[in-house]
């Protein structure tokens, strides 16, 4: 995606998948979601907005040098729910 295109649900789902596969850091997924959430030129459907709300915050930790607030199983459940909602 170049900076001028609206990301679609596939791209949001891909971020979750890449985090779970270890191909994208949680911090990168969080930054990407933040850019999308704060871009006033982008318009989101309800499912995409719901998923972005989860993706933006995926890198939160319980504290400095602590585990992530949401573990891998929770992220996997979000991805499964996203896929169900997209049907």
TrEMBL record:
<protein>
    <submittedName>
        <fullName>Uncharacterized protein</fullName>
    </submittedName>
</protein>
């Amino acid at each position: 995606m170049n900076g001028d295109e609206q990301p679609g649900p596939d791209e949001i789902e891909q971020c979750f998948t890449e985090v779970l596969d270890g191909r994208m850091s949680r911090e990168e997924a969080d930054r990407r979601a933040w850019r999308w959430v704060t871009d006033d030129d982008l318009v989101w459907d309800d499912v995409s907005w719901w998923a972005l709300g989860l993706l933006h915050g995926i890198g939160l930790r319980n504290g400095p040098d602590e585990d992530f607030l949401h573990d891998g199983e929770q992220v996997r459940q979000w991805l499964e729910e996203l896929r169900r909602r997209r049907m």
